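Bug #77: duplicate submission created two jobs. Keeping one. Sequence:
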Amino acid sequence: MAELIGAGSPASTITIVDVPRSDLPDRLTEAMAIYVTAMGYPTGSGAQRGTHMLRHAGFDSFRCRAALNAEGRMLGFGYGYTSLPGQWWHDLVRRAIAGDTGHWLGNAFELSELHVLPTAQGAGLGERLLRSLAEGLPHRTMVLSTPEGENRAWRLYRRMGFYDLARNHLFPGDSRPFGVLGATLPFPPPAGSEGDGGDSQLSR
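Kept job's structure:
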């Protein structure tokens, strides 16, 4: 695992960059270290999730962003792709959603992961990553799942206009309940300030 680092720099020096699929293998260890720390998972779970991320990078619609400090070290990342029938998360969520699944899943960008290193939270990186991922998307909606609980992730998603699609949903292989959320794109404009930081911890 990559050495975990703190924010180390003022928020103004942290940049959000595109991570093309060709660069992903070089950044994967760093990203998965953030993943297991932010989610509180065992260290070994990062290797399995990294394999999934590499597979997802093969999708034509794959999009990834990273927050880098002045030294080029990763403090957070997020990625997603078009949500389609036949995909594991899409099919599970489609059965769990009550209401208009066509609206929410018919033309949706599936936010697979969005995480900020805990020591770098509170600087608005979660919102910056989320807005960068959504910028220019042709999709009607963005959908995601996040662990239940009052935390920065939920405050961020509420502020960005996400609605409850399913609550206390259990995914195979994880004992924690998740909320399934969806927002219509584009997002509302940002507030005058970044508020409480809006850092997110999301997984499936």
